[in-house]
Amino acid sequence: MKHKRTALVVGVGLCLILLVTLAQWVMAPIHKLNDWEKPIEASRAKNEPWPVNTAPLDSLQRELALRKALLELPKKDSIHLLINLADSSINLFMNGLTIYQAKATAIEVDPLIKRLNTSVYWAQWSIPRKTVFSQANIVKEPVIEKVAPKTQEEFLASVTSPDSLIYDPAFVHLALDNGTQLILSDEANKFGGRTGRKLYSAYRWRRRGVFLKSVITFSQYTYEPKVYLEAENKALTAIYRALPEQPKVVIYYR
Amino acid sequence: MITKVHKSVWISASVVAVFVVLFNLQPLAIALATISWSPGVSDSTLMALEHTGQKELKELDQKLRANVPKGHYLVVNSTVNEFYLYKGEQMVKKDICSTGSYVLLKKSEKEKWMFKTPKGEFRIRNKTKDPVWKKPDWAFVEEGLPVPSANHPSRFEYGVLGDYSLSLGDGYLIHGTLFQRFLGLPVTHGCIRLDDENLELVYKSLPMGSKVFIF
């Protein structure tokens, strides 16, 4: 009898934990959406005009949002990132000009990002997003230190042919200020081979920790929608090296 | 009669079903939460809104296009050692070049030189035909030679920069090279090296003040 009661208590407890976990997990994107709708409410409170949610005007509003965001990018000698999901391109944007374009060979977009209506799209993507955290397995500046030869004989002995360019598997992870996680990966080595996967796995473990903490403390779990793009490693290396440590990012999609 | 096997099959199937349902709950929640309410907009309002939107789109496009140089400009990719010559929005030529080696040459803690091509937007400040290279101090230090006085004849080398050079300021040049086999590799001291044909094309295409973007 006592055993049955204990089993029942444990069972109910486990069900409760499962329920809380499930609720946290299911509600997380909805909380994120509410968060993303805040600029709309703020704008309504100030009686400012905001794009209407009508399907016939949706693509036009998105085109406008892209141009507005591009024009808002600072022109002070800095390179920015433009992700155009509509034509599958990753672009470097500098002083109002696209200076480099790489084709994305595979794209995965989080369902929350995919399904945004015109108003929320405008709220999130009509401005350039700031990068709040970045990590990559690419060396930003591949500096080689050389001690100057003291004599010409020493110089002649140290002359070597330049190395041919070696590109390691590339992985770039940028966390944007609206919570979007932008992941750029080498097309031949998903998540940038061993070193890239290590970085990504560390991020995923951190996220699991955050989720567990939110379950234990009954606090809100922050959902982080992802945009995953694959491209050639040479192109990704060039893009990552060109960008500042925390670049501004513009994303466009239909 | 439900046998033990049947029972375990049922339990397993139920567990799998529960997991399938749970797994799809989040996308389902997203789908439900993003169902958007569209206000009823009359056709005339819709047309007016579209007209205003198209007008605004044209204005923004014009503002964006104003940033694209009308004439020729050069883009240099220092990671893959390539250059792209544009005229307006049209790419005229794409080929290999050589950029900085990223070598940090150390003579002492105080005297060191970093051989990298600077990134950013530059302009052609000066153009020279048959340029002469005035070797800076590092060129001697690198070869283990004593550094001569500022205008010593050993500082002047003829023909090593090719037929033309274009200055980007701060001593950085676009020039030719005797070591054509190294083109496409990061081997320079910060300058941009092109082969003879490309150098002539770039020299003739880019007037003074033309933009050069290096990334």
Entry keywords:
heterodimer, A: 254 residues, alpha+beta, L,D-transpeptidase catalytic domain-like, nine-stranded mixed sheet, 7 helices, 10 strands, flat, B: 215 residues, five-stranded mixed sheet, four-stranded mixed sheet, 32% helix
Shape of chain B: elongated
CATH fold-type name of chain A? L,D-transpeptidase catalytic domain-like
- What is the CATH H-level superfamily of the domain at 72-214 in chain B? L,D-transpeptidase catalytic domain-like
Q: Residue-averaged pLDDT of chain A, rounded?
A: 90
Radius of gyration of chain B: 31 Å
SSE arrangement of chain B, N to C: HHEEEEEEEEHEEEEHE
| Gap from first CA to last CA of chain B | 75 Å
Name the CATH class of the domain at 72-214 in chain B.
Answer: Mainly Beta
**Tally of structural domains of chain A:** 1
Query: How would you describe the shape of chain A?
Result: flat
Sheet with most strands: strand arrangement of chain A: 3-2-1-10-5-7-8-9-4
Rounded Rg of chain A: 24 Å
Counting H and I runs of at least 4 residues, what is the number of helices of chain A? 7
Textual characterization of the structure:
The complex is a heterodimer of chains A (254) and B (215). By secondary structure, chain A is α+β, with helices and mostly antiparallel strands. Chain A is built from seven helices and ten strands. Chain A has a nine-stranded mixed sheet, sandwiched between helices. In chain A, a hairpin with a 4-residue loop joins strand 7 (171-176) and strand 8 (181-186). In chain A, helix 2 packs parallel to helix 4. With 215 residues, chain B is of the alpha+beta class. Chain B has a domain at 72-214: L,D-transpeptidase catalytic domain-like (Beta Barrel), CATH 2.40.440.10. Helix content of chain B is 32%, strand content 27%. A five-stranded mixed sheet of chain B has the order 3-2-1-13-6, with helices on one face. The termini of chain B are far apart. The interface between A and B is large, with 62 and 59 residues.
